[in-house]
Amino acid sequence: MDICVNCFSDGVQSGEHKITDDYNIINKLNYPLITEDWSCEEELLLFEGLERFGFGNWADLSDHIGSDKTKDEIEKHYEQYHLDQQNKQFYPKYGIKVLVQKKKLKIH
Q1: pLDDT digits (tens, 9 = 90+) for 67-101
Q2: InterPro entries from the entry (predicted)?
């Protein structure tokens, strides 16, 4: 059963599901957006890091993303999928509106 944060915090129950049931929090941004090896969360962190640290600071971006991505992998991914217009058909796999909506939901 999916339930929003507000309903969960208000103790909303539905059908046979009770507030005393066990639950798991699922990260909704762990799906691939453009390529299978980059999650939506990593893509968001990439652009957030670019805004914060500036273009070319790949080591800082690697620390900011916090995954197993090296600075060279980050630079290559950015150049291949975000700068190269020949690869525009890959971007974004699930639609830019999904990325923007997920980011807004995360902030608010």
Answers
A1: 899 999 999 998 888 876 665 665 555 544 555 55
A2: Homeodomain-like_sf, SANT/Myb, SANT_dom
- In the numeric block, which tokens belong to residue 54? 């500036």
CA dist., res. 42 & res. 69, Å (int): 9
- Identify the helix (H) or strand (E) that includes residue 39: none
Question: What are the structural domains, with CATH classification, of the chain?
Answer: 29-107 (1.10.10.60)
Alpha carbon distances (Å) from 6 to 3, 44, 97: 8, 24, 23
Task: Tell me the pTM.
Answer: 0.57
**Beta-bridge mates of residue 39:** 32
Kindly report the number of other CB atoms within 10 A of residue 60's CB atom. Answer: 15
With tokens 């208000």, the residue in question is: 10
Please say whether the beta carbons of 65 and 74 come within 8 A.
yes
Task: Return the sign of the alpha-carbon dihedral for residues 85, 89, 95, 99.
Answer: negative
